[in-house]
Amino acid sequence: MKVSLKEVNKSFQKGKGETLEVLDDIDFNISEGEFVSLIGPSGCGKSTILKLVAGLDAPTSGEVLMNGRTVTGPGTDRVVVFQEGGLFPWMTVIENVTYGLLRKKMSKEEAHEKAMEGLRMVHLANFTGSYPHELSGGMKQRVAIARALVMDPDVLLMDEPFAALDEQTRLVLHKELQRIWQDTGKTILFITHNIREALTLSDRVLLMSTRPGAVKREFTVQAARPRDPADSNVVDLERRVMEELEEEMEKVLKEEFGDDYHLEKSRVRDSDHSDMGSHI
Amino acid sequence: MFVIVIIAIWEVISKAGIFPTFMFPPLIIPSVPGGVTVLKTLVGGVMSGQILAATGVTLSRLLIGFLIAVVLGLTFGFLIARFKWVDDTLGYFVTALQSIPSIVWFPLAIVWFGLGNTAILFIVAIGATWTMTVNSSAGFKNVPSIYINAARTLGSSGSHLLRTVILPASVPHIISGLRVAWAFAWRAIMAGELLGAAGGLGYLLDLGRSTQAMDLVLSIMIVIGLIGTIIDNQVFLRMERSVARKWGLRT
Ligand SMILES: Nc1ncnc2c1ncn2[C@@H]1O[C@H](COP(=O)(O)OP(=O)(O)OP(=O)(O)O)[C@@H](O)[C@H]1O
Ligand SMILES: [Mg+2]
């Protein structure tokens, strides 16, 4: 197992004496080279799981294992791509991409070479001297992906990396990410609230329930790659995931709007149900 | 244009003879042929080196005091942002300290250091330290956690993280801190020099007062205004703009 979470619980201190339980006995494994997506309603603890795996936060109980060893802090074997990229605005593209390499005590020339290789992989070799604000949202995400890939991590952790992008850009990046994943054989943990995105990219989709988050169900996607959204397997899965999610969404909406709220199932079904985010 | 109107009004009042010439000297055109004008005194003072020398003295004091304040301010700011207990103690106190005009420290400075350079440096430094502290601690506290998290997963930690991420990410706050701190230091040094200490523009002002040479006083006021504006525009505004451009912030 590349990554294992064993009965992981996480709660946050919320003011005096009160605690907010976010994760409830999370237990799952990711094998080497597997592409796994986490999907679930907003606030269910997806980002929290990612941070625990990254070692940026510690579980309240239970443990996170990486290659069989307990995770105690961040390490360059697990690099994160954040929703907003997290590029350093005071550094140029190439400085951003070489940042981690130089920290590894790699020589300037070698780091530059590797960074160029990474940038070519995401088709941005001509923008090395630009600052992040001079790039489009899609380009920034590609730089962030290159910055993570050049570190040659065992596991790539991605927290809604394409959520802020328009549909066209997202489709292009899906293609690129699939190609990169197939070329490099990386293990990827991918967070999204877009069902279609999860089904297009993943080997396995873990569906989480509302807070305190637990893994409610697991779907294995057995469609040929590259994925065709019209594939009968995908269409069938999409409907099943949507049904499960509706249940969870109803809980969230009730929590937010009070008990008098009743989800109009037919309305939700008729709308573009690939993106539950728009209903939350 | 506005400046020309002001000069014209000044000249008229000066020539109208309401006040004696020594109190209200003309700026450019002498009232009697060969009489005093502010312009003449200014040019003369600069030529003879008197005003230049005084400017040099003032600026070097200012620079030293300011640098001390910047180093202290950054250190305090970092400690306040980093340690909760420093924030609860010093951080709380700094707000009070900041509201004390720096010249209020002068009596203490004289007793501690005697009337002289050190006392002046002290009030310049103390005038600028607290604003610098407040701004830099705000800068350090507001570093978006996404930058810190990204850097940590890329292998950074400790002083490397401080140097490569926390400091640069605080730069916009730090620059506005520098700008305000400089303005405080500039006011502090004038007050300090006016009250005592040989050399410097403030001392020349006091000299002008005691010899009733308002032409000298006005010349120096012009010099002070010019230096203040030039430094603010050429140094701090430029720094702010170049950072804003590089970061893509709105100006
Ligand atoms: N550092 C923290 N301190 C206190 N509460 C936190 C902290 N981080 C997260 N939480 C809480 O934990 C819960 C889960 O947060 P998390 O960011 O993991 O959700 P998420 O599933 O990623 O949601 P989204 O889809 O909106 O990104 C939220 O209720 C949030 O308020
Ligand atoms: Mg999240």
Keywords:
heterodimer; A: 280 residues; alpha/beta; Rossmann fold; 6-stranded mixed sheet; B: 251 residues; mainly alpha; MetI-like fold; binds adenosine-5'-triphosphate; binds magnesium ion
What can you tell me about this protein's structure?
- Chain A has helices at 46-54, 93-103, 108-121, 137-149, 167-184, 195-201, 232-257, 265-270; strands spanning 3-13, 19-30, 35-39, 61-66, 69-70, 78-81, 155-159, 187-192, 204-208, 215-220.
- Chain A is an alpha/beta fold.
- Chain A folds into two domains: 32-59 and 68-77 and 155-278, 3-Layer(aba) Sandwich (Rossmann fold); 84-152, no CATH class.
- Chain A has a six-stranded mixed beta sheet with strand order 6-7-8-3-9-10, sandwiched between helices.
- In chain A, strand 7 (155-159), helix 5 (167-184) and strand 8 (187-192) form a beta-alpha-beta unit.
- In chain A, helix 6 runs antiparallel to helix 7.
- Chain A is globular.
- Mean pLDDT of chain A is 87; it is low at 266-273.
- By secondary structure, chain B is mainly alpha-helical.
- Chain B has one domain (51-247): MetI-like fold (Orthogonal Bundle).
- Chain B is 78% helix and 0% strand.
- Chain B has helices at residues 2-15, 38-48, 50-82, 84-98, 106-113, 117-141, 145-153, 158-195, 201-210, 214-247.
- The radius of gyration of chain B is 23 Å and the shape is elongated.
- The two termini of chain B are 26 Å apart.
- The relative contact order of chain B is 0.12.
- The model of chain B has no long low-confidence stretch (mean pLDDT 87).
- The A-B interface holds A 51, 54-56, 74-76, 78-80, 82, 84, 86-90, 99-100, 103-104, 131-134, 147, 151, 157 and B 146-147, 149-156, 160, 164-165, 168-169, 171, 246-248.
- The complex binds adenosine-5'-triphosphate (ATP) and magnesium ion.
Q: Catalogue the ligands.
A: adenosine-5'-triphosphate, magnesium ion
Q: Assign the CATH topology of the largest domain in chain A.
A: Rossmann fold
Tell me roughly what share of residues is in helical segments of chain B.
over 70%
- Return residue spans of chain B where pLDDT drops below 50 for at least 5 consecutive residues: none
Number of domains of chain A: 2
Compute the number of helices of chain A. 8
Beta percentage of chain A is 15-25%
* Named CATH architecture of the largest domain in chain A: 3-Layer(aba) Sandwich
Alpha carbon gap, first and last residue of chain A: 34 Å
C-alpha Rg of chain A (nearest Å): 19 Å
